[in-house]
Amino acid sequence: xxxxxxxxxxxxxxxxxxxxxxxxxxxxxxxxxxxxxxxxxxxxxxxxxxxxxxxxxxxxxxxxxxxxxxxxxxxxxxxxxxxxxxxxxxxxxxxxxxxxxxxxxxxxxxxxxxxxxxxxxxxxxxxxxxxxxxxxxxxxxxxxxxxxxxxxxxxxxxxxxxxxxxxxxxxxxxxxxxxxxxxxxxxxxxxxxxxxxxxxxxxxxxxxxxxxxxxxxxxxxxxxxxxxxxxxxxxxxxxxxxxxxxxxxxxxxxxxxxxxxxxxxxxxxxxxxxxxxxxxxxxxxxxxxxxxxxxxxxxxxxxxxxxxxxxxxxxxxxxxxxxxxxxxxxxxxxxxxxxxxx
Length: 342
Known about the structure:
By secondary structure, the chain is of the alpha/beta class.
């Protein structure tokens, strides 16, 4: 195994200089830096993370966890996890050039109880990012008993550092956009019962209707899994059981919208000529679908960026006051909403 001493000898520098290069210390001259990096590449040196942890008394990894909701993930029947991937992209961007590695785990629930991540049990990480608002308070408190630096991404979680998305007013903006285009019969296919964001989205939906003087109709608010099949089954129920149909659909996620699009394609219902569709999320699914959908962009990559920065802050100062930021959102108009006049 190639050691740091081997690199130093081959490069004609001290071990401390090699260490400074590895840690991207700005005090190292550019010429020396490239010389050492060239030797590292030539010799195939990989630093011993465990040894570094023993020497510095700091872990060299951060952790990221998400809840595993279904065995059929990444399928039409399951959750494609676009939210997770978009947030993770922001984390990766900030992680580049740092000294940290990143460990991932999907957390399963057994008899309603979430398992504690192995990376936490084995004390392998210095800080943890929790993606999504599905985990219960007891689970998060158990984790924080074992690791002090924890940041929750996606929702405003009391007593914890967090980076939240404004699900309530993001949904409000989407519904108001439909109303401003003349729609008054709007079907909202929301997410499932067990997510924090579902309740917030319903609040936004109700608020937009109330401001426009539109009565809330229980039949026009449905709940669905975050899946294509969930959206498909929901819209099928409305169009095949109800005698009157909405003029516009708003969905609680892009995966739900994908199911709506499939049903309309099968029935030769044209968007936006026959019905308008908009969605909450703005993942790759909305832009690559046919047709592309008007969507509320929730700035998910920025959630990851802010989350990483907040975790570094917490690691540096474990006793700092609790902090929570909400990232801004915007509507992306892709022409899937028809203007109704008269």
